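W.,

You were right to be curious about this one. When I first looked at the sequence I had no strong expectations either way, so I just let the prediction run and decided to look at it fresh. Below is the sequence, 106 residues in total, followed by the output.
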Amino acid sequence: MNDARQARTQRLVSFGVLANRISSYKYGIPKSVVRELVDYRLSLTAMQADELLRPIAKNDLVILELLIEYARELNSGNTTKAKAIMKEAIAKWDANDRLMIEVTKQ
């Protein structure tokens, strides 16, 4: 694995840790955490140039947008809609797990 791909992979892991942390907030997500989440948009977009990581990065971008929407709804007090969005994000994350397994087999 080259250095650039290794750095991208580490960034994917860091994104996963942040996504997991966001799911632990029950009553609101601090703006600093939302900004940290938004910061991943650029790196996930850039990862699409890597043929091997492209499917994972594309799916992570969808998850990213769902998490931003989740934070917006949770912070505005709309917990019903926030739960539905989180459910959708978890389903995407599960699909991403399968993609990661496929990539590691290559």
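Here's what jumped out at me. The mean pLDDT is 91. And, maybe more interesting for your project: The longest helix spans residues 79-105.

Coffee later to discuss?

I.
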